[in-house]
Amino acid sequence: MRASLIQIDVNPDESSNSRRQRVASLVRGQAGADLVVLPELWPVGAFAFETFADEAEPLGGPTYEAMSKAASDAGVWLHAGSIVERDPLGPLYNTSLVFSPDGELARTYRKIHRFGFDQGEAVLMGAGDELVTVALPATTLALATCYDLRFPELFRALTDAGAEMFVIPAGWPERRRAHWSLLARARAVENQAYVLACGTAGTHAGVEQAGHSVVVDPWGEVLAEAGSGEEVLTVELDPARTAATREQFPALKDRLLGLDPPRR
């Protein structure tokens, strides 16, 4: 299975419409991959809070249209990162879009853990409340977004729901890059699953981005890691490695807490 993570430079001097077209071209350039992943809130910038309301769009809006067409043209499964979703019946949401190779919307995921400590995203957006997995022909993806990476209970619940590969778009700041790398490996090791974590480059509203998108295997080995600039990170994955790792080192079977009823 070939996966490509597109680490996008979100330049504030580039319009959202121009960026959509540029990113669509980058997705089309990954024809031959099985899965393509984009970062969090790349149409607007994860820290550009003051523009969220103006840039919000419905699920069928311009990013949806551009990414649906790009996925279909490339013939790939596309995790199109996330958008600022405007729900006509509710608040704004940080919503991920996953498209099938025919361009159909396969699943959405509204980010559960909002970053900001009572400011920014934490007050401007509503919280999702659904665990989301996506069945691909070769594996089962589980969806999480950026700050979600800090909450291991979410990933354990997704593992219980059948996750074999975690896909995590992000807009992670450079000043906490060490946490990004550490947590990506930790989530892989503790759940014995692949982690595909795709970040952004550039600066969002004055916040320098970490870049360093990373792919980690179920044993915690880093298979590929990007630098700090815009980059396409492509890696060959063996979906059978998740089951093999769990069989060879069956730590998940020894769990005692968080089970109903507990094992004895």
List keywords for this structure.
264 residues; Nitrilase/N-carbamoyl-D-aminoacid amidohydrolase; six-stranded mixed beta sheet; 15 strands; globular
Question: How would you describe this protein?
Answer:
The structure is a single chain. It is globular and about 50 Å long. It is α/β, with parallel strands linked by helices and 264 residues long. It has one domain: Carbon-nitrogen hydrolase (Nitrilase/N-carbamoyl-D-aminoacid amidohydrolase), CATH 3.60.110.10. Helix 1 (16-28) runs parallel beside helix 3 (62-74). The protein has seven helices and 15 strands.
Could you give the order of strands across the largest sheet? 6-5-4-3-1-15
Specify the biggest β-sheet.
Answer: 6 strands, mixed
- Note the run of SSEs as H and E: EEHEHHEEEHEEHEHEEEEEEH
- Helix/strand-derived category reads alpha/beta
Number of helices: 7
User: Alpha-carbon distance between the termini?
Assistant: 38 Å
Q: CATH superfamily, called what?
A: Carbon-nitrogen hydrolase
Question: Uncertain segments of ≥5 residues (pLDDT<50)?
Answer: none
Morphology call: globular
Number of domains: 1
Question: Which CATH class?
Answer: Alpha Beta
- Helix percent band: 25-40%
CATH second-level architecture: 4-Layer Sandwich
Please identify the oligomeric state.
single chain
Mean pLDDT: 96
Strand content: 25-35%
Radius of gyration: 17 Å
- CATH fold descriptor: Nitrilase/N-carbamoyl-D-aminoacid amidohydrolase
Total number of strands: 15
